[in-house]
Amino acid sequence: MRPGDYLVLLAGVLLCAFATMMLWRGGVPEKAVIRAGGELFGEYPLNAPRQVEVPGPLGISVIEIEPGRARVAVDPGPRQYCVRQGWLTQAGSVAICAPNQISLSLSGRGGQYDSLNY
C-alpha cells in the first residue's frame, strides 16, 4: 500500500463514523402512546413526570413517564420483557407487553423506521 492509500482508507473510516453519528440516531420524542388490547388507551406529553396505570387481562401495568423518556415500570407478565426494555428515549421506540396486551411507544418527528413501524 502506498501513502495515498492510507489517506483514502482514513477518509473512508471518518466518513463511516460521521454517517453513523448523524444518520442512525432517532428523533426527539414528543409524546408517549399507550395501547391496551389493540385500542388506544392514551397519549401523554413527555414534558412532566407522571405514572399511568393501564389495566390488561393479567392485571395492572404501570407506565412511568419523565421529561423526554418513558418506560414500563411494572407488568404482571411472566417474563417481564417490556420492563427489561428500560427507558425509551427515541421517537419510534416501542415496548410491548404481549401477555398483558399493552404497548408503549414514543412518537415524534424523525422517528426511526424498522419492521415494526414501517
From TrEMBL:
The chain crosses the membrane at residues 6-24. It holds the Pfam family NusG_II. It comes from the Bacteria. InterPro entries: NusG_2_sf (IPR038690). CDD domains: NGN-insert_like. The keyword Transmembrane applies. Keywords: Membrane, Transmembrane, Transmembrane helix. This is NusG domain-containing protein.
